[in-house]
Amino acid sequence: MQKKFNLRSFNLYEFLKHQNAYGFNVPFFLADRHTYQNAHVNFPFRTFTFGLGITYTGEGDVFKIGSTDYLVTECCLTTVGPGMVCQWTGNYTAEHDTVYFTEELFEGMKNNAFLHSLPFFFHGGRHVIRLSDEQTRKMAALFGLLKELKDDKSAVPGIVHSLLMLAESFHVGRSGVHPDGSISEEAPNRISNGISNREKIAQAFRKLVAEHFPEHKEVAFYATELHITPKYLSEVLQAELGKPAKAFIDEYVVMEAKSLLKQTSLSIQEICYWLGFEDASHFNKSFKKLTNTTPTEYRKS
Distance from first CA to last CA of the chain, Å, rounded? Predict the structure, then answer.
């Protein structure tokens, strides 16, 4: 597999699997510092999977996720979902464990849609948090078990699910609210009791936006795809996410634009094309309206 700077085609998950002779039919992949040192991925890449990692050492390397620079030191929990533009600027010397996985890993579970209820995997979430020594030990214990049983297909989904629930408890425990600002419930209850129809609509909407935002920025398209009216869609999102549909779409596009401006050398015209705008003038006007600055000014800041 050729490694090159191409946000549309480069898939880090598949590349690392190829580099480490992992089977492509296995819906997860374990990585450590040696994995990245051998890969030499020092350019911006778009994520196509979910990833959760914990660092055990490290004096501080910058991990760019979306439009935010995170300083990753020892005892940091990092979570990234599909569709994010990322770049690791460190030298990969920190000891850590990371698991990458796709939704297929949880196909056998009764409620396999729970991934989309975890805000730290998506735009606007808090992707890096510092853990206590005790919390880090708990994560390390689960990673140890995962590495020991990585060839047991019946055990892996449950262990990764436990890692996710532990990660969510650490996020919620920091403030009593989720990273997206919603009031917290007990994580085990939400997972075991299922999710409401409104939550399902919000989750499906977020996934559709991530897939179609370059071509469709109008609320009516997503409402049609979800078989509901635009008005009802915005009412649901206002209740579930704290913002109407159009505001969410615009915010998503701006986050994407910011990440491309900060993490790539693509020209404004190329970014305009990538985001699906008719021309650079339209893109500049839209970006400034939402951020009070131009794309060029933001890139230089």
Answer: 36
Residue 281 host element (H or E): helix 280-291
Give domain status of residue 3, yes or no. Answer: no
CATH number of the domain that residue 23 is part of: 2.60.120.280
Considering the domain boundaries, does residue 7 fall inside one? no
- The H-or-E segment that residue 71 falls in is strand 68-72
Total count of domains within the chain: 2
39-43 long-range CB contacts below 8 Å, 24 or more apart? 39/3, 39/15, 40/3, 41/3, 41/12, 41/15, 41/88, 42/87, 42/88, 42/89, 43/5, 43/87
25 and 153, same domain (yes or no): yes
pTM: 0.72
Say whether both 20 and 164 belong to one domain: yes
Domain edge (last residue) among 192, 216, 248:
192
Range of the domain at 163: 12-192
- Per-position pLDDT tens, the chain of length 301: 444 456 656 677 777 777 766 665 789 999 988 887 777 676 677 788 999 999 999 888 899 887 688 999 999 999 999 888 888 887 778 899 999 999 999 987 766 678 888 989 987 788 999 999 999 999 999 999 999 999 999 999 999 999 999 999 999 876 444 444 343 444 333 333 456 888 889 888 988 898 899 999 999 999 999 999 999 999 999 998 889 999 999 988 998 899 888 878 889 999 999 999 989 999 999 999 999 999 999 999 8
For helices 156-175 and 133-148, the axis angle rounded to 10 degrees is 170
136 in Cβ contact with 75 (< 8 Å): yes
Same domain, 168 and 227: no
